[in-house]
């Protein structure tokens, strides 16, 4: 291992400890490596930009971000909450169940955990505290855990990025995330039911049968969006990348012309915010190219593959080792860093062991979502903590327990790959 690579790794750790932004941390670490190695920065920048310009799948990222922001501004989250409340709100701890169910629906539109946390999550937290009387740390923890469904249930921004770096089929990844996403939701609802009984959480209000049709009708139009997206992809009408543009367009049309709560000024603000968020994601991907360049130059992938081969691990043994490692790293590193830095290094070993790329992708993305709610570096916890003003110590005290059901689902997917691959195989993906 060269001095330059050691220096880069030290910078990544120091940046994480100092709570630097992910983009700044990765750029700084990569530049330290290039400076010590005496590499030409201009040549690397040219190669990075040329690589990004040819990756058309990246067009899906800003479109999904736009769709999520439009839906949050167009009261779609509130309408979905009301519909979910009618279905499961009447049970003990019902508002926790409603939070999970609403995120199942919103996940099929936004594709981003942070977007779901900042949009539907804020609606849920307010209702759980004001109406349900939930402790504020518990309310934030439930919303944070439920937002992990966003990148698993299609569409998914992390899946777009994983498809980019692994060459796995994005359509197959979208299909493969459905059953695991529903299992995650079911596990969270079971856990919430146990907590509700133990801590005597309140029952939700019962809605009369007369009111049910009206509430469901208010949410009917937004529910056509996932049908449009996923139906269009699976029928071949448009590609996953094109579906992202359709999601953004459909959300704008609903908000501007049906609900009439998106004026030109609001839309301009939404487009500006979406542009800034998209720029951050693109900068993150660009910075990952520098890190990957360093890893490739140092032949880290080949050395790691040789080391894993010497262990004579079975595919399941490899998956267990990698995911336990990611669970530990997730306490100090962000999921995006692990996806963009560590996954490309592991892909040669994944291929050598015959592990399906789609199966590997869904499992590690679930792992990275757990990382986003794991203290002390859980990005979603920071987002919700800053938006709600709830102290991090209150959130951290409650969030640990919700990592248990999500981790259990992850290990279930490792031991039974057919859970992930069944739907893609049924619909013709290899």
Could you give the topology of this structure?
Layout: H1 3-17, H2 22-37, H3 41-53, H4 60-73, H5 76-88, H6 94-110, H7 113-118, H8 120-130, H9 136-147, H10 157-166, H11 170-176, H12 178-199, H13 212-218, H14 224-235, H15 240-258, H16 264-297, H17 300-310, H18 315-329, H19 335-352, H20 357-371, H21 379-388, H22 392-415, H23 418-426
Helix pairs in contact: 1-2, 2-16, 4-15, 4-16, 5-6, 5-13, 6-8, 6-9, 6-12, 8-9, 9-21, 9-22, 10-19, 10-20, 11-23, 12-22, 14-15, 16-19, 17-19, 18-20, 19-20, 20-22
> How much strand?
under 5%
Which series of helices and strands comes N to C?
HHHHHHHHHHHHHHHHHHHHHHH
End-to-end CA span: 38 Å
Shape: globular
Number of helices: 23
Number of domains: 1
**Biggest β-sheet strands, sense, barrel:** none
Number of strands: 0
Provide the residue-averaged pLDDT.
81
Supply the helix-strand structural class.
mainly alpha
Unreliable sequence segments: none
Radius of gyration (Å): 21 Å
What percent of residues adopt helix (DSSP H or I)? over 70%
């Amino acid at each position: 291992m060269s001095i330059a690579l050691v220096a880069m790794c030290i910078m990544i750790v120091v940046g994480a400890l100092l709570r630097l932004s992910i983009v700044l941390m990765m750029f700084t670490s990569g530049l330290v490596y290039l400076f010590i190695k005496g590499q030409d920065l201009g040549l690397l920048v040219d190669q990075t930009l040329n690589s990004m310009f040819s990756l058309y799948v990246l067009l899906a990222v800003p479109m999904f971000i736009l769709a999520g922001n439009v839906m949050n501004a167009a009261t779609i989250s509130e309408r979905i909450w009301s519909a979910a409340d009618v279905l499961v709100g009447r049970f003990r701890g019902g508002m926790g169940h409603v939070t999970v169910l609403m995120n199942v629906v919103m996940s099929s539109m936004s594709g981003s955990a942070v977007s779901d946390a900042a949009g539907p999550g804020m609606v849920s937290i307010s209702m759980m505290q004001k109406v349900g009387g939930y402790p504020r740390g518990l309310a934030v923890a439930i919303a944070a855990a439920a937002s992990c469904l966003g990148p698993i249930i299609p569409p998914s921004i992390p899946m777009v990025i994983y498809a980019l770096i692994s060459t796995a089929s994005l359509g197959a990844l979208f299909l493969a995330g459905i059953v695991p996403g529903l299992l995650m939701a079911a596990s969270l609802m079971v856990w919430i039911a146990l907590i509700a009984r133990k801590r005597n959480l309140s029952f939700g209000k019962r809605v009369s049968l007369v009111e049910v049709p009206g509430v469901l009708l208010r949410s009917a139009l937004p529910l056509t969006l996932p049908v449009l997206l996923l139906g269009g992809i699976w029928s071949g009408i448009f590609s996953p990348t094109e579906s992202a543009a359709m999601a953004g367009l459909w959300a704008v049309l609903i908000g501007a012309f049906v609900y009439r709560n998106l004026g030109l000024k609001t839309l301009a603000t939404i487009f500006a915010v979406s542009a800034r968020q998209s720029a951050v994601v693109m900068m993150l991907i660009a910075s990952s190219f520098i890190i990957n360049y360093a890893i490739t130059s140092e032949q880290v992938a080949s050395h790691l593959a040789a080391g894993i081969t010497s262990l004579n691990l079975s595919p399941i043994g490899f998956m267990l080792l990698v995911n336990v490692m990611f669970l530990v790293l997730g306490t100090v590193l962000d999921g995006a860093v692990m996806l963009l830095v560590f996954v490309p290094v592991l892909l040669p070993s994944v291929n050598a062991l015959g592990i399906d790329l789609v199966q590997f992708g869904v499992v590690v993305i679930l792992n990275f979502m757990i990382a986003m709610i794991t203290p002390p570096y859980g990005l979603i916890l920071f987002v919700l903590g800053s938006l709600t003003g709830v102290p991090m110590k209150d959130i951290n005290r409650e969030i640990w327990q919700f990592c248990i059901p999500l981790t259990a689902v992850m290990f279930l997917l490792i031991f039974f790959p057919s859970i992930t691959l069944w739907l893609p195989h049924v619909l013709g993906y290899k």
